[in-house]
Each structure stands twice: as structure tokens, then as C-alpha cells.
Specification:
The structure holds two protein chains of two kinds. The two termini of chain A are 24 Å apart. In chain A, strand 7 (172-176), helix 7 (184-199) and strand 8 (203-207) form a beta-alpha-beta unit. Helices cover 37% and strands 25% of the residues of chain A. Chain A has a six-stranded mixed sheet, sandwiched between helices. Chain A has a single domain, classed as Rossmann fold, CATH 3.40.50. By secondary structure, chain A is α/β, with parallel strands linked by helices. By secondary structure, chain B is of the alpha+beta class. Chain B has two domains: 2-53 and 274-406, no CATH class; 67-262, no CATH class. Chain B has helices spanning 2-16, 19-57, 85-94, 128-133, 145-150, 159-166, 209-216, 238-252, 268-311, 313-321, 326-362, 371-397, 401-406; strands at 61-65, 69-71, 74-76, 83-84, 98-113, 116-125, 137-140, 154-157, 175-178, 181-189, 204-208, 224-225, 227-232, 264-267. A six-stranded mixed β-barrel of chain B has the order 5-6-11-8-10-9. In chain B, helix 2 packs antiparallel against helix 9. The radius of gyration of chain B is 33 Å and the shape is elongated. The two termini of chain B are 33 Å apart. The relative contact order of chain B is 0.19. The chains are: A alpha/beta, B alpha+beta. The A-B interface holds A 59, 62, 64-65, 84-85, 88-89, 91-93, 97, 99, 103-105, 107, 116-117, 119-125, 164, 168 and B 2-3, 5-6, 13-14, 17, 314-315, 317-328, 400-402, 405.
């Protein structure tokens, strides 16, 4: 019953989202009435020139920032009005982040970095270690458990970050320019990994300005001047 | 629980990753706690010394001295009336509130036994003296009223004198010469040790006061004494002693109403109490000055924690992005501050002990580390950690994850 219900509810539904920054004189409408839905298991790329509002959109989807107006249903729950600690919990349980700059704790080992979300989820020490190890194995880093970020290549660091996004079994992975700091071959490896995860059922929302990277996605949302200007689905996927 | 443990682990590793800074930050608390403990130890040492002085002198003491007469606040040297042995007798007989009276004649003397010499202090006094000072002999006997009446040429000697003149051998029955007058040693006093003023209380010879007056002093006035020690029957009678003795002496010195006393009556207990009061004030003062340095140390911790929060803004952002609640962040920074101040407090306690030990062994000041001060210092350093750690921790927990993540 619950499973049926969860299939009918989109993982992301935003309605008339407006985000206004009033820092420095005239207020800036970073998002100006954005509405879209993303179903479970979709692989979506968000594109647009800088200043188009795509980063603001990502931060809103990531519950790092609250919209000024409008509502945001994440997994069926309106999170647009939640306060700090509730948002922390939502991020912990529902979201996995993959950033351009990896954003790993520099002094912690790969294993500790991956286990960190589990700390805040209240998972016990032994269990944390087991789950984190499993996640690192999943991204192909079984031999790098005790390495620190500065002892790893960029691609390896990004894999650690992806493993970290997986440990809490979050249904949604938000990737903000995940290949922005990586060379071409490594970028392909990372995108293949994300594609695999998508096939395993994770919903992936990817921000990028590179068309090559956006190709991996099955759907592209284009932003300009804070507005959603295009919602393109690939032909071959419609039939699936 | 595992969350708290993990936070603790994070705090420890964060402090260890920056050892020099952590140590420098702790230094304020180390010095503060060490100073509080050492200062209170010195203060307490002084207080205990005062207590020793009071109990060594005998309790409920009043001392009568032949103070010079005063006229209109001006000392008049000529009008001084001497204290006499008969005054002491009269005080004991007539003042009901008085328990014991010990007139004293003090003479410096060269002691000679066979070929050995020793300069010492000779006190001529009455048997009451032993009662007041709580003196006992280890061999022989004390002086008694009979010795007094007959002005016998007998003496009891302190441990130091016994050692210097007789070495290890028995002194009882031997004859020693005090300023060329031969005296028979009848007793050796039990050890009293150093007085709190650093005087050797065992370097003493005691003879009957009558003998001292006749044989050892060459003062002009027959029967005069240097001072009279008076002990009240009990502590509640101190004021009665003061007024009774004062009245009697005025009468004996034939002073008219309105004339100033030509003797001096000192309530020693009161004097010592006010002395120990000032000792207490001193140690309180030392303690509070030291506490200020503890406060400064706390501000140092706050300062470093604020720097640390700024430096680690990005880390805070990452933690928040993956699910840390404000509480987690706050606890982490609070724990770091607490660990810093507790570790500093612990090292400070060791330092305080070492400093107290150093002061007592090198400066020869008595010190006494008080467990209360240690507990207080430890508690205060924990308080400093929480109090001064709270603001930076609160500041860290108030960061918006989006801003913290963007921070370069």
C-alpha cells in the first residue's frame, strides 16, 4: 500500500517558487515562479548560463535555502516552511550531495567522511563502519578506506563524496557540477557511476553547464533569468 | 550516546591536529589555575602559621608591659613606672578572672659547660609559665614554687641548649654557668620546634624569676620584670581580665582619674586574631588576583574558538549539508572549548602543586595546598570552558549551511 502510494507521489514537486535576495540595494529575483515535477528514478540535468537561477534552484532543492514564496514538496512533504533542524533531518534522510569541490572533511579518512551522515542519523559506531565500507566498495574504493582526501586524486575524492551521498539510503542525489574539477576521462567515469545509480533507482538531479555532461541525463531543465524556459525529454526514453 | 562519543572524538582530533595552538590557548587557564592554587596555598600556609602562633603562645593571653606614660598622646620617657614581681603576685591574688600569671625577666646569657660555649636567651619566670606555654620535660623536672621561694640556682633547658652543651649525654644534675653564675640543670624540656616566626623555641634556658632578679640582672630597680603574661580563666573572661588588671594597675600606680595609663595591656588573642584576619584577607586578595588571570585565560579560549569557527566555516557547512543539526555543531565546539579548559585546568593543578612545593622548599614559606582550592579551580576552569566556549559554539551553530558552504 505504502509502496503504491509512494509511486504515485513525485519525488520533487515545486510550485511557483520565488526566491528574492535583497542584499545590496535593489532586490534580485533569483527564481521567478518556477514550477515542475520530477518523478522517482529520473535523471535530470539542470542547465543555464550563470545567473540564470540554476544554482539557487539547486540550493532550494537541496534544502540548503528556503524559497521566499511557493511550495516545495520533497517526497510528498512540504519542506518549504521547515526550520533549520528539521531541514537538517530532511537533508540527512532524503538527500545526498555531490559538489563540484567534493567538500570532504580534510582531516578525516575516506571511511570517516563516508560515515559522517550516519553519525547524524544516530547509527551506532560498528554499523556505521560496515555501511560506509560497503558504500566505498560500491564506488570502487575498497582499497582507499584509510586515505585522507589529500592522498587521493580528484576522481577518487568525488567517488568518496558519492559514497557519502549513498550511506543514508537517500532517494535523491543532487550533483552540483560534479565534474567541474575533473579531467575528461575521470568525468566520464563519474558520470557512468551516476548513471548506474540512476538505473538502480536513485533520482539524480545534476547541475551543469556542459552539454556533454548533460547528455547523460534523460531530461533537461533549462533556466534563464530565474525562469524555467525549457523542459526537454529525450525521445528514446519516452517509450520506456 | 554514540553521537556524543563521535563528537568527542572529533573534538579531540581537532585539538590534536593543532597542538601548538591548543597548548598556547590552554596556557591562560594553566597559569590561572596554577596561580589560584599556589596563591591560596601560600595564604593558607600563612594562616596555619598564625594558628600555630596562637596555640604556641597559649590561649586567652593578655600581656602587661611597662608602657611609657603618655600625656596628650606624647610619650614621656621619664614617667614610666616599672612592673614589679609584686604586681604579678597582686594580679594573681586579687583579679578573680585571671587564671595564671607569669612574670618574665629576659636576659641574654653566655652558657658555659666545661669547655663548651653557647649564647642563648635566659628567661626568669614562675611555674605558671609552663602551664601557659604548655611546656613539659622529657627528663628531670620542671621548676616549682619551692625553687622560686628559695631563689634556687636551678634551671631547665631546651633541646637545642642540651644538644649544644651536652651533645648526647645526660644533662640532669650537671652544672652550667650562665654569665659565670653556676646553675644546676634539673630538667630538659620536650621539643617545641621552630616558632612560626622562625625562632628556635628550644634554644632557651628557664630559671626561677627570683634567682634571675638576684643573680642575672643588674637593673636599677629591685624586683622589676620585663613583662607579665596573664591568662584568663577562659575565653569569655578576656574583657574582665583587661578591666580588672587595668583597674588594679592604675590603683597600684596611683593614677588619678583622667591620667593616662603608664602601662600597656595587650590582648594578645585579639591581636593575633586581627593578624590572622589580615592573613585571610591577604589570601583572599591573592586568590582573586589569580582568578582574574583565569578569567583572562577564558577570554583567550573564546578568542581562539572564534578564530577556529571562522576557519572551519566550510567544515561546518559540510556537516550541516549532510545532516548535522545546530545542536551537533554547538556541542562539537563547546566540547572543544571544554576540553581545552579542563586539560588546562588539570595541568594548572599540577603546576599549582609544583609551585607551592617550590615556594615552601626554596623560600621556606609554609604552604598548604587546599583541596577546596583545587576543586574550585577545576570547577572554575570547566565553567570558563562552557561560558567562554558557548558564544563561539552558538555562533557556529547559527551559520546558514548555504553561506557556510560557499565560504572560502
Amino acid at each position: 500500500m505504502a509502496d503504491l502510494e509512494s509511486k504515485s507521489i513525485p519525488i520533487i514537486e515545486v510550485r511557483d517558487i520565488v526566491k528574492i535576495y535583497d542584499s545590496g540595494g535593489s532586490p534580485l529575483r533569483a527564481l521567478d515562479g518556477v514550477t515542475f515535477r520530477i518523478e522517482r528514478g529520473e535523471f535530470v540535468a539542470v542547465m543555464g548560463p550563470s545567473g540564470s537561477g540554476k544554482s539557487t534552484m539547486m540550493n532550494t532543492l537541496g534544502c540548503l535555502d528556503s524559497p521566499t514564496e511557493g511550495s516545495y514538496f520533497l517526497d510528498g512533504r512540504d519542506v518549504s516552511k521547515l526550520s533549520g533542524d528539521d531541514l537538517s533531518e530532511v537533508r540527512n534522510k532524503k538527500l545526498g550531495f555531490v559538489f563540484q569541490g567534493f567538500n570532504l572533511l580534510p582531516r578525516a579518512t575516506a571511511l570517516d567522511n563516508v560515515a559522517l551522515p550516519l553519525v547524524y542519523a544516530g547509527v551506532s559506531g560498528g554499523e556505521r563502519k560496515r555501511i560506509a565500507k560497503e558504500a566505498l566498495e560500491r564506488v570502487g574504493l575498497a582499497s582507499r578506506l584509510t586515505h585522507r582526501p589529500n592522498q587521493m586524486s580528484g576522481g577518487q575524492q568525488q567517488r568518496v563524496a558519492i559514497a557519502r551521498a549513498l550511506v543514508c539510503k537517500a532517494p535523491l542525489i543532487l550533483a552540483d557540477e560534479p565534474t567541474g574539477n575533473l579531467d575528461t576521462q575521470t568525468s566520464i567515469d563519474i558520470m557512468n557511476l551516476l548513471t548506474e545509480l540512476s538505473k538502480e533507482g536513485k533520482t539524480i538531479v545534476l547541475v551543469t553547464h556542459e552539454p556533454d555532461i548533460a547528455k547523460y541525463a534523460k531530461r533537461v531543465l533549462r533556466f534563464k533569468d530565474g525562469k524555467l524556459t525549457a523542459d526537454e525529454r529525450k525521445e528514446q526514453d519516452r517509450g520506456e | 550516546m554514540s553521537e556524543v562519543f563521535e563528537t568527542l572524538r572529533t573534538a579531540v582530533s581537532s585539538l590534536l591536529s593543532n597542538k601548538a595552538r591548543s597548548l598556547l590557548t590552554m596556557l591562560g587557564v594553566i597559569i590561572g589555575v596554577g596561580a589560584v592554587i599556589a596563591m591560596v596555598a601560600i595564604g593558607r600556609g600563612a594562616a596555619i602559621q598564625m594558628e600555630g602562633l596562637i596555640s604556641g603562645m597559649g590561649s586567652n593571653m593578655v600581656i602587661l608591659l611597662s608602657g611609657a606614660g603618655r600625656s596628650g598622646g606624647v610619650r614621656q620617657s621619664g614617667s614610666s613606672a616599672p612592673l614589679l614581681l609584686s604586681d604579678a603576685v597582686a594580679i594573681k591574688d586579687e583579679c578573680w578572672s585571671v587564671g595564671a600569671v607569669a612574670p618574665q625577666v629576659n636576659v641574654g646569657a653566655q652558657l658555659i659547660y666545661e669547655n663548651r660555649n653557647w649564647p642563648s636567651q635566659v628567661t626568669g619566670t614562675t611555674p605558671d609559665f609552663f602551664v601557659i606555654r604548655a611546656m613539659t620535660v622529657i627528663t628531670g623536672r620542671l621548676l616549682d614554687d619551692e625553687d622560686d621561694k628559695s631563689a634556687a640556682k636551678v634551671c631547665v633547658i631546651g633541646q637545642t641548649v642540651a644538644r649544644e652543651l651536652f651533645g648526647g649525654s645526660d644533662a640532669i644534675g650537671e652544672s652550667i654557668r650562665l654569665n659565670r653564675v653556676p646553675f644546676e640543670v634539673v630538667g630538659v624540656l620536650s621539643e617545641k620546634g621552630q616558632s612560626s616566626m622562625g625562632q628556635d623555641q628550644d634554644d632557651t634556658v628557664i630559671v626561677p624569676i627570683t634567682t634571675a632578679q638576684r643573680r642575672l640582672t643588674r637593673s636599677g630597680i629591685a624586683g622589676s620584670v620585663n613583662m607579665i603574661q596573664i591568662q584568663a580563666r577562659d575565653a569569655s573572661m578576656m574583657n574582665a581580665v583587661m578591666s580588672e588588671v587595668s583597674g588594679l594597675m592604675r590603683q597600684r600606680h596611683r593614677l588619678d582619674v583622667g591620667q593616662e595609663d603608664n602601662f600597656e595591656l595587650r590582648n594578645m588573642t585579639q591581636m593575633l586574631e586581627s593578624l590572622s584576619q589580615s592573613t585571610r584577607v591577604m589570601s583572599l586578595l591573592l586568590g582573586s588576583v589569580a582568578s582574574i588571570s583565569l578569567l583572562v585565560g577564558g577570554i583567550g579560549i573564546m578568542n581562539i574558538m572564534l578564530v577556529s569557527v571562522t576557519e572551519r566555516t566550510r567544515e561546518i557547512g559540510i556537516r550541516m549539508a549532510i545532516g548535522a543539526r545546530a545542536w551537533n555543531i554547538r556541542t562539537q565546539f563547546l566540547l572543544e572549548a571544554l576540553l581545552l579548559s579542563l586539560a588546562g585546568g588539570f595541568i594548572g593543578i599540577l603546576l599549582g602543586y609544583a609551585a607551592s612545593y617550590g615556594v615552601s622548599s626554596f623560600l621556606k614559606w609554609p604552604t598548604e595546598v587546599s583541596p577546596g582550592a583545587v576543586a574550585l579551580a577545576a570547577g572554575f576552569s570547566a565553567f570558563v570552558g562552557v561560558f567562554f566556549g558557548f558564544y563561539p559554539a552558538w555562533k557556529a551553530s547559527r551559520l546558514r549551511p548555504i553561506d557556510a558552504l560557499r565560504f572560502e
